[in-house]
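Would you be willing to look carefully at the protein I have copied below?

:::
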Amino acid sequence: MSENSTIEWEIDQLIKARLFPDEQAVLRSALRALFQTQPELRLQMVIRAYTAGDISLGKAADIWVSRPKR
């Protein structure tokens, strides 16, 4: 089983077990856990999005300020 199909299978199993309502809920939870354990990744993401022109400075500040506290 490829890594991609393994991940899809795991997500599907979490939903079938009714631990999450849908794929988006699984992904939100996974990202929340990632950013809690590696907060520098969130900062790098926001900086890259701002410098690429994908988001405004105000939006970057909103994303950074609204981050979950440890």
Notes: The first helix runs from residue 3 to 16.
